[in-house]
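Fold this sequence, please.
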Amino acid sequence: MNRGALKYTKLPAHFNVKVLSPPHAFNSLALKYRNFDKEDYLVFLGRINTAKGANEALEVGKHVKLKMIGYQEQKFIVKQAKSSGIEVIENVSEEEKFEILSKAKALISPSHQESFSVTILESLAVGTPVITYDLPSLTSIYNFKSVFL
């Protein structure tokens, strides 16, 4: 648990808690795809379900070109995405994922339930800015210029 999540839970008021700061790893292959020449689309990357905010990503896709990469956990969201002209991409290799992510203008991460997002870390590693919610767990880690909260 990071400091932001810990503060949000108010556990220190009830327990003697110590926060450890482990390093968070990501696939170093991402750095091979680091790219600042962007194409005209946004990316949603994650499990395609309401918990990850995929339904909210559909709203974004009504106004800008959106590519959704992920496993279809809720078929009704995928059906809505496809009927709205949103590209849904499944079963991609790590290379394909980083290629698509590196060319996007931004990653949208509309999840309401994140503690540490490897997806955000991977996006930053390939040089793609991130748009996400102002969650305490994320602001304690990703509170800098390339992450728009």
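Strands lie at 42-45, 66-69, 87-89, 106-109, 130-132, 147-148. DSSP finds six helices and six strands in the chain.
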